[in-house]
Amino acid sequence: MMATGYNTKDEDGNPAGTSSPVGAGNDRSRKPDNTAFKQQRLPAWQPILTAGTVFPAFFAIGVFFIPIGIGLYVTSNNIKEFEIDYTGVDASNPCFNCSQSYSWNSTKPCTCSVSFVLDQAFEGSVFMYYGLSNFYQNHRRYVKSRDDRQLNGDTRALTDPSKDCEPYRTDVKPIAPCGAIANSLFNDSLELDYVSPNVQESRGNNSNLIAAFKDTTKPINWAKPVFELDTDPDNNGFINEDFIVWMRTAALPTFRKLYRIIEKKTEAPTLLKGSYTLHVTYNYPVLTFDGRKRVILSTISWMGGKNPFLGIAYITVGSICFFLGIVLLVIRHKYGVRSSSADIPS
């Protein structure tokens, strides 16, 4: 009985009765599936850039970006900021003697006072930052030199710190908190004095913390152990705002970090116009790595602290787009539309 039909091609797509070329089996194993995705037959949209689409886009970006940039720049300039450098590099700086004599091995802190004058009052809450220069917190080995188990309150990690903390992992006893970040904690004490008397600190009873850390030792460069960082007797040894802020490493070698907030509590300006004295307990040497230290007093706005870069970036991009739109418009007006192929004589 004869078949009613037959396939005229084999499985490789060759006519029946013919053989595949040598190596066809290897080629077939690498052949993509016959789908729209793998054979690049998916529908696609390709924009055609014409004068009618390019010119409005350039002008729209310029008109949109420039006013926003001006607003951001003006807002940033309205933020009041005052900076005091107390590194002590120059002999005329009141902290010069401290900078020259103090080191990590010093047992007694050095104190100095820097006088300055505010030419205008600071309204609203004032943010007090400390700033460091030439300090590379973004170094890979520095960033990973920490034990997150300790920072999360795991008491088992106190006596068995992570090996990532080396060489600040042990010092006769295990170090808590361990690592290079914690060991380099900024520990200058800063006090701003106007006319009002100084407020004395009161300390709580930290006996429960002393027991928790009895089998550990402080970081090498610390003047006091971790349980003396905070005066709150209910903390667990790591709920210290200065320590938390410091452990968030900075991306650039010149940075600032929040130290204190002077809150506005009355209708009067937070910082009055006049003379001030910054009392510094100099515990943090920076001259060994050519660093600089400074205190920044700043107000804030709805966009945060003072940062003119964002406004400048918006103005620059908007101006460039607007300028390019004008240049292209002049070129089109001068040279006209390019002749099509249909107008070219054969």
Summarize this structure briefly.
The chain has 346 residues and is of the alpha+beta class. Helix content is 27%, strand content 16%. It is built from ten helices and nine strands.
What descriptors fit this protein?
alpha+beta; 4-stranded antiparallel beta sheet; 9 strands; 10 helices; flat; 3-stranded antiparallel beta sheet; 27% helix; 346 residues
Overall spatial form? flat
> How many β-strands, per DSSP?
9
Strand order of the largest sheet: 1-9-3-7
Taken in chain order, the helices and strands follow as: HHEHEEHHHEEHEHHEEEH
Structural class: alpha+beta
Give the uncertain stretches in residue-range form: 1-6, 196-207, 340-344
Amino- and carboxy-terminal Cα gap: 66 Å
The overall average pLDDT, rounded, is 83
How would a crystallographer describe the biggest sheet? 4 strands, antiparallel
Beta percentage is: 15-25%
Tally of helical runs = 10
DSSP helix fraction? 25-40%
Question: Rg from C-alpha positions?
Answer: 34 Å
